[in-house]
């Protein structure tokens, strides 16, 4: 551009101005010897070689610091920093996770102390004042009870960290155009690595749910299912991890079209309301009332039509026991229901489902989820194939849920008749996909909470939700 000096001209002007400034200072200060001496020192300092170009064309910096050429020094500095980091890493023994995640959680936390979940006050209970709930934090008696169960708390936190890191990877990895089997296999292989799968001691707690649109729960693809995830789908990713039967049951909803934002937001806020309302001595029906109030305050517009977000009234949260995903207590997501109270050291899955349809689900599509009946006593089996399949189920899953893909992974073949026989005799229960009316959309969010004597810990809480 016209009127712009070249770099060489600019440097020459600056050099001339600097020389004039130094000469002018010396002439004006001749009457004051002290000042003159001071200025001469300054002049001498500026004359010391600083940044410039050497004969060989390399950049040089202040000789005072004995610093090597910039191009060489930068690399050395980075190398020193890396070495220092590696040295500290070796000293502490702490590893950082890879991307995608491959290092088992136990190796990331070799001391056995796993990250604590979100800590909250117990919800205000009917007939119990709020101060009593808050006083639990400072009660030495409650603290002592907390300390008695640290081994259990660490097991559930271990499972929670595996869940967090798995879902973080999957939320970034899942894209429209992938098959549902592809998604499930990636999730399950990641979770197995992170949890350090070890028979019934550590592994997946139930099959990966990836129910789409009007299907709210209990769908996972069977072998040969070619279903593809599409841009306009609303998919619920529901999976579980466990350590020694201590189960994390946690779910989230993925969508790619922003028109579903209000639906997903409404269900997530309803889940948070349920978590906030929960706590020791809280009535289960009060949690359901809190969930319904928040969820029904949301609306979503789809293709020009406004839908109120309805809680799916025949789906619920539940208590969780060792190796038992549904331990007996039900947490409704609508008002009414049981007046049974929550108790200390209980685990709960606070899960909510919202729908643009009727708000009620029914069995539909091919069944994929199965689980051995926890309370079933010994049942005589006549078919040899049924006995063999039951032995395989006992060895690999015990009373944890499983799916057909997992039976095949464990080595089962031609098992359809044996599986039907076990279901007919009540040894195994089938859990078909649960669907609202076709054409509607459903969303789900879920967290596992632990009701410690001192506080409520949202064990599965993460940066994502």
From TrEMBL:
* Principal location: cytoplasm
What note does UniProt attach to the cofactor annotation?
Binds 2 divalent metal cations per subunit. Has a high-affinity and a low affinity metal-binding site. The true nature of the physiological cofactor is under debate. The enzyme is active with cobalt, zinc, manganese or divalent iron ions. Most likely, methionine aminopeptidases function as mononuclear Fe(2+)-metalloproteases under physiological conditions, and the catalytically relevant metal-binding site has been assigned to the histidine-containing high-affinity site.
Which cofactors does this protein require? Mn(2+); Co(2+); Zn(2+); Fe(2+)
List the catalysed reactions: Release of N-terminal amino acids, preferentially methionine, from peptides and arylamides
Superkingdom classification of source = Eukaryota
Which NCBIfam families does this one have? met_pdase_II
What InterPro entries does UniProt report for this protein, alphabetically? Creatinase/aminopeptidase-like (IPR036005), Met_Aminopeptidase_Type2 (IPR050247), Pept_M24 (IPR000994), Pept_M24_MAP (IPR001714), Pept_M24A_MAP2 (IPR002468), Pept_M24A_MAP2_BS (IPR018349), WH-like_DNA-bd_sf (IPR036388), WH_DNA-bd_sf (IPR036390)
Presence of the UniProt keyword RNA-binding in the record: no
**Recorded E.C. number(s)?**
3.4.11.18
Is the keyword Metal-binding assigned to this protein?
yes
- The protein here is known as Methionine aminopeptidase 2
Write out the GO MF terms.
Answer: initiator methionyl aminopeptidase activity; metal ion binding; metalloaminopeptidase activity
Question: What keywords is this UniProt entry annotated with?
Answer: Aminopeptidase, Cytoplasm, Hydrolase, Metal-binding, Protease
This chain's function reads: Cotranslationally removes the N-terminal methionine from nascent proteins. The N-terminal methionine is often cleaved when the second residue in the primary sequence is small and uncharged (Met-Ala-, Cys, Gly, Pro, Ser, Thr, or Val).
Q: Where in the cell is it found?
A: Cytoplasm
Q: Where are stretches of biased composition, namely Acidic residues?
A: 9-27
Output the GO biological process annotations, alphabetical, semicolon-separated: proteolysis
Q: Which major enzyme category is it? A: hydrolase
């Amino acid at each position: 551009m016209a009127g712009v000096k070249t770099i060489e001209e600019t440097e020459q002007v600056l050099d001339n101005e600097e020389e004039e400034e130094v000469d002018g200072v010396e002439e004006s200060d001749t009457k004051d010897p002290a000042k003159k001496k001071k200025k001469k020192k300054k002049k001498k300092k500026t004359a010391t070689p600083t940044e410039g170009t050497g004969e060989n064309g390399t950049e040089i910096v202040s000789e005072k610091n004995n610093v090597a050429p910039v191009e060489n020094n930068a690399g050395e500095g980075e190398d020193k920093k890396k070495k220092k980091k590696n040295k500290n890493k070796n000293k502490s023994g702490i590893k950082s996770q890879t991307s995608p995640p491959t290092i088992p959680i136990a190796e990331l936390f070799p001391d056995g102390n796993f990250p604590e979940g979100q800590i909250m006050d117990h919800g205000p209970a009917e007939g119990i004042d709020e101060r009593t709930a808050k006083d639990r934090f400072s009660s030495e008696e409650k603290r002592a009870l907390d300390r008695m169960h640290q081994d259990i708390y660490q097991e559930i936190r271990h499972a929670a960290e595996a869940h967090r890191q798995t879902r973080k990877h999957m939320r970034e990895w899942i894209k429209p155009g992938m098959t549902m089997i592809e998604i499930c296999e990636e999730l399950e292989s990641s979770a197995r690595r992170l949890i350090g799968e070890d028979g019934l001691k550590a592994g997946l707690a139930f099959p990966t749910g990836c129910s789409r649109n009007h299907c709210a729960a209990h769908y996972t693809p069977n072998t040969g299912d070619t279903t593809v995830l599409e841009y306009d789908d609303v998919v619920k990713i529901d999976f579980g991890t466990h350590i020694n039967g201590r189960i994390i049951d946690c779910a989230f909803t993925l969508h790619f079209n922003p028109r579903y934002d209000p639906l997903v937001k409404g269900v997530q806020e309803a889940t948070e309301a349920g978590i906030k309302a929960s706590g020791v001595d809280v009535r289960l029906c009060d949690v359901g009332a809190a969930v319904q109030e928040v969820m029904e305050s949301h609306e979503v517009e789809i293709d020009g039509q406004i839908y109120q977000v309805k809680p799916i009234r025949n789906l619920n949260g539940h208590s969780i026991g060792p190796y038992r995903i549904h331990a007996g207590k039900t947490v409704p997501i609508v008002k009414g229901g049981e007046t049974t109270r929550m108790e200390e050291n209980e685990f709960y899955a606070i899960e909510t489902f919202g729908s643009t349809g009727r708000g009620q689900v029914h069995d539909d599509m091919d069944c994929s989820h199965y689980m051995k009946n926890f309370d079933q006593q010994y049942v005589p089996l006549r078919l040899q194939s049924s006995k063999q399949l039951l032995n395989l189920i006992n060895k690999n899953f015990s009373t944890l849920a499983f799916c057909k893909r997992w039976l095949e992974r464990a080595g089962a073949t031609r098992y359809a008749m044996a599986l039907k026989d076990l279901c007919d005799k009540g040894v195994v229960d089938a859990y078909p996909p649960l669907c609202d009316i076709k054409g509607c959309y459903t969303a789900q969010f879920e967290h596992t909470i632990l009701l410690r004597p001192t506080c409520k810990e949202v064990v599965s809480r993460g940066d994502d939700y």
